Amino acid sequence: MASNVTVTTVIFYVFAVWAVGSALLCITRSNALASALWLVSTMFALAAIFVILQAQFIAAIQVLVYAGAVMVLFLFVIMLLNLEDVPHDWKRWPAWVVGVGLAAVLGTTLVTLHSYTPARLAREVSTMPSPVDPRLVFPEGNALAVATATQGAVGSVAQPLFQGYLIPFEVTSVLLLAAVVGAVVLAKKKL
């Protein structure tokens, strides 16, 4: 059993390094098409991480919606705008220094947070004497497990999406449509 956990952990870290590397390549490319393709690679790595974390529904949505539909729209707009390579500007080097500094600070924070477990977090947050059950301190996690067991993974995601968050969901889709129409209008030489 311990070897499965080790193999799963190694696979998780392989996909995590792949996601971070692809994201770095996405933001450092001067060609917009190459940047968009590296973003697709990042989306596939994130979907694989979701599968490892037993969130298959989110992984499928990640591939279908983000790596599929949204990236097709991005590529369509990039091709429509006919963007050329941007010449390298050496005046931007202070932004790179700030970015690398922020990445180092965030990386250090993530390394220090590695030792946190739900039980340790519950001990630090709770005013109750030790030992503390994390399910008593964070009842939302238990409610999510119950909702998933009764409704299934799709039902527990669909119910709040189509009841409580229906209007923001629809507004987001209209905004994406308006962005694509705006890009088409900007790309046309003559109306």
Describe the structure.
There is one protein chain. Helices cover 80% and strands 0% of the residues. Helix 3 packs parallel to helix 8. It has helices at 2-28, 32-52, 56-81, 93-113, 118-125, 134-137, 139-162, 166-187. The chain is mostly helical and 191 residues long.
What would the keywords be for this entry?
8 helices; mainly alpha; Four Helix Bundle (Hemerythrin (Met), subunit A); 191 residues
Order of helices and strands: HHHHHHHH
Low-confidence stretches: none
* Biggest sheet overview: none
CATH class descriptor of the domain at 1-89: Mainly Alpha
Reported by name, the CATH topology of the domain at 1-89 is Four Helix Bundle (Hemerythrin (Met), subunit A)
Distance between the termini: 65 Å
Number of strands: 0
β-strand percent reads under 5%
- Percent in helix: over 70%
Kindly report the name of the CATH homologous superfamily of the domain at 1-89: NADH-ubiquinone/plastoquinone oxidoreductase chain 6, subunit NuoJ
Instruction: Give the helix/strand class.
Output: mainly alpha
The radius of gyration over CA amounts to 22 Å
CATH architecture of the domain at 1-89: Up-down Bundle
Query: Count of helical segments?
Result: 8
- Kindly report the average pLDDT value: 78
What best-fitting shape do the alpha-carbon axes yield? globular
Task: Briefly summarize what is shown.
The protein is an all-alpha fold. It contains eight helices and no strands.
